[in-house]
Design goal:
Layout lengths: L1 H6 L6 H6 L1 H30 L18 E3 L4 E6 L4 E13 L5 E17 L11 E2 L3 E2 L2 E2 L4 E11 L5 E9 L2 H12 L1 E4 L6 E10 L2 E6 L4 E5 L5 H22 L1
Parallel strand pairs: 4-9
Antiparallel strand pairs: 1-8, 2-3, 2-5, 3-4, 6-7, 8-9, 10-11, 11-12, 12-13
């Protein structure tokens, strides 16, 4: 019914429009193509909101510390599958080789360092030792979320019989993490006299003022001199954090 109303001939060109079957075929095709493009754009926007990226989190590799949160490398290898949800994983740090004078011997990157982590909470069903592992894939489906956290350490017995302790890696719920980060953005701001307080989050620093968004969505601009020393320090730290994030995104 919708297609018929769209292609109904109108005006002085009605006869020519109706007589040419190309119009009747082309319009539905164009409508379908437009719908597909709109759907792709929606998915892309959703991916930007839901999936972690390098502008928000660093790639975790090398020397890892408990509490680190970041993106898992895409080239992790299964060293030893422990169970359907746990395995020893080997990661690689790549680089180019230099000669004694500091010149690049070859532009081809090679493995410069290897490190081992104990992965828990992932889907290792069907995985075999030596196979690549992507933390963003679960049950054969790609989730897009390759965000992980070093939650502790794990001690295991090596093939030689000795005991070894490595970082423990577990998946992170991206939605929950963003909700927690959003909560941390809200804080109680105090003016330089210590008498006036307001709950708000920092929107931006522009024209020499910190622009704060309050709970009722109203915006107020305050110069640094109007804020407490603690709030001034927070503004500087937050601006540096955002600049660092933008720098990683631009790489």
């Amino acid at each position: 019914m919708i297609t018929a109303s769209i292609v109904r001939p109108v005006g002085k060109h009605a006869g020519r429009f109706a007589a040419n079957p190309v119009y009747l075929i082309a319009l539905p095709v164009l409508l379908i193509a437009f719908g597909m493009l709109a759907s792709m754009a929606l998915c892309d926007d959703r991916a930007k909101d839901e999936y972690p990226n390098e502008s928000e989190f660093p790639i975790l590799e090398g020397r890892l510390a408990v509490g680190d949160v970041g993106l898992s490398p895409s080239d992790w290898l299964v060293m030893q599958r422990i169970s359907d949800t746990e395995a020893l994983i080997e990661g690689h740090i790549y680089g180019v080789n230099f000669d004694s004078s500091g010149r690049v011997v070859s532009s081809v990157e090679v493995v410069k360092e290897r490190y081992i982590v104990y992965a828990s909470g992932f889907d290792f069903k069907g995985k075999v030792d030596g196979e690549h592992f992507d933390t963003a894939s679960y049950g054969g489906k790609y989730s897009g979320n390759n965000l992980v956290k070093i939650t502790g350490t794990k001690t295991y017995r090596t093939a030689m019989g000795s005991m070894s302790t490595v970082p423990l890696v577990e998946p992170v719920d991206m939605k929950a993490l963003k909700e927690e980060a959003e909560k941390k953005l809200w804080r109680v701001w105090t003016d330089s006299t210590g008498t006036h307080k307001v709950e708000a989050k920092l929107k931006e620093f522009r024209d020499g003022k910190a622009w704060l968004v309050k709970r009722d969505e109203s915006v107020v601009g305050l110069s640094l001199s109007q804020l407490s020393k603690e709030d001034q320090e927070y503004v500087r730290d937050e601006l540096k954090r955002r600049q660092d994030a933008n720098s990683r995104s631009a790489r």
